[in-house]
């Protein structure tokens, strides 16, 4: 059997954890620059607010609804996610972290009733040690476990735990016949349209399809989904996470940036962030693409530029990445354009030490990355950096976060105090 643990309304729950007055209130968490809804409390969902709704369309009714907004605090969410995942791993035979708020677990052997008791102990353990609510679905395959977890979240009578084998006879048949095929894990967009063109409109239709015909028409991935819906575990737990193939750091700007020099400063910051992520993963990059673009939704001329760079030597050091990124993009930027986005995509990733260099052939930069990391670990994440990023002066490309909650768990200066 496989269990899927999902933290309920994760971002919203993280906000309410340290601000109890938000409990029971309609709350939305907004994307970068306070743009669109990326998380909702149950009360906000009841108002009909959808994922992706822009805040400017909700603002007029917010006071009447009692709607509260918070800016995304990704540092807080990542820290709480790590605490939850480490805690869950102690109580299972195996774990695959699927996303920031979900993971698959291998439960202990036992009867359905015993596994449900194990799941309820997990719920209580997470609630006691971290303070976040979780829902758990248990089934013979990952795809079925996803369906069971969604059922546990939506049916309050389940107490947040559903075991596939404990459902009344015929329940899953009726549910799968009622739910559209887009409710299946990994089925959306063009794939869903192609399935519907074949007459596969519900989960039950996909479950009853010929898996071999599905493989020939689509791929082995979809064949595995059919097998999983029938209870055969065709997608195993992956306890070893594959290393990243690319690292992307990009951002949309709160307001247009007209000056190419300022766009270059933004790219320098993104390159430093990419170098830090490379070091954290223990990887080096052999090439990268740096880019900047205007918005297609704004009046005026459009300008989308990019430059592809192969580094003389693979690296994760900030200085060569920053210098190469700025030098590659600067000649392509134009004065007077309303740039609204920029970023850097690092590719050809390899483990540190996997690409030996002949001594003296290529001049190596001073190893500043580890020194910067050590200082920032000790004194705070933004203590030391290169260039503009190290001055702590306001930057026009920084996120607009009007309602950012404190860094309750990652900053000594913002820890909760008890009087």
UniProtKB/TrEMBL annotation:
Segments forming domain UmuC: 2-188
Domain of life: Bacteria
Single biological process term from Gene Ontology: error-prone translesion synthesis
Gene Ontology cellular-component terms listed: cytosol
UniProt entry tagged with the keyword DNA damage: yes
Keywords of the record: DNA damage, DNA repair, SOS mutagenesis, SOS response
Gene3D superfamilies: 3.30.70.270, 3.40.1170.60, 5' to 3' exonuclease, C-terminal subdomain
GO MF, one example: DNA-directed DNA polymerase activity
Function: Poorly processive, error-prone DNA polymerase involved in untargeted mutagenesis. Copies undamaged DNA at stalled replication forks, which arise in vivo from mismatched or misaligned primer ends. These misaligned primers can be extended by PolIV. Exhibits no 3'-5' exonuclease (proofreading) activity. May be involved in translesional synthesis, in conjunction with the beta clamp from PolIII.
Family membership noted in the UniProt record: Belongs to the DNA polymerase type-Y family.
PANTHER family on file: DNA REPAIR POLYMERASE UMUC / TRANSFERASE FAMILY MEMBER, PROTEIN UMUC
Protein name: Protein UmuC
Native species: Kocuria turfanensis
Gene name for this UniProt entry: umuC
């Amino acid at each position: 059997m496989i269990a899927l643990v999902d933290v309920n309304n994760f971002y919203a729950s993280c906000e309410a954890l340290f601000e109890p007055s938000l409990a029971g209130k309609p709350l939305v968490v907004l994307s970068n620059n306070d743009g669109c809804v990326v998380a909702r409390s149950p009360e906000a969902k009841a108002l009909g607010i959808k994922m992706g709704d822009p805040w400017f369309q909700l603002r007029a009714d917010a006071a009447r609804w009692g709607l509260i907004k918070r800016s995304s605090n990704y540092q807080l969410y990542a820290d709480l996610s790590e605490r939850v995942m480490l805690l869950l791993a102690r109580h299972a035979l195996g774990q695959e972290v699927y996303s920031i708020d979900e993971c698959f677990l291998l439960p202990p052997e036992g009867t359905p009733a015993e596994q449900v008791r194990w799941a309820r102990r997990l719920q209580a353990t997470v609630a006691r040690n971290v303070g976040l609510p979780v829902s758990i679905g248990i089934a013979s395959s990952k795809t079925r476990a996803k369906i069971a977890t969604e059922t546990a979240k939506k049916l309050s009578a389940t107490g947040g735990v559903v075991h596939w084998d404990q459902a009344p006879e015929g329940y899953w048949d009726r549910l799968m016949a009622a739910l559209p095929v887009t409710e299946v894990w990994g089925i959306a967009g063009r794939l869903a349209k192609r399935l519907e063109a074949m007459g596969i409109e519900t989960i039950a239709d996909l479950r009853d399809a010929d898996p071999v015909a599905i493989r020939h028409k689509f791929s082995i991935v979809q064949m595995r989904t059919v097998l999983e819906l029938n209870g055969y575990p065709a997608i195993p737990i992956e306890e070893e996470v594959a290393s990243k193939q690319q690292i992307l750091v990009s951002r949309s700007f709160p307001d247009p940036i007209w000056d190419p020099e300022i766009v270059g400063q933004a790219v320098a910051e993104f390159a430093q962030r990419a170098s830090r992520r490379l070091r954290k993963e223990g990887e080096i990059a052999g090439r990268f693409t740096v880019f900047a673009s205007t918005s297609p939704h704004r009046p005026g001329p459009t300008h989308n530029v990019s430059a592809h760079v192969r580094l003389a030597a693979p690296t994760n050091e900030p200085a060569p990445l920053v210098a190469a990124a700025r030098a590659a993009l600067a000649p392509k930027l134009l004065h007077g354009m309303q740039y609204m986005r920029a970023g850097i995509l690092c590719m050809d990733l390899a483990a540190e030490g996997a690409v030996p260099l002949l001594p003296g052939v290529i001049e190596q930069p001073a190893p500043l990355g580890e020194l910067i990391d050590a200082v920032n670990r000790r004194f705070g994440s933004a203590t030391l950096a290169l260039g503009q990023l190290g001055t702590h002066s306001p930057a026009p490309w920084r996120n607009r976060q009007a309602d950012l909650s404190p860094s309750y768990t990652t900053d000594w200066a913002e820890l909760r105090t008890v009087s």
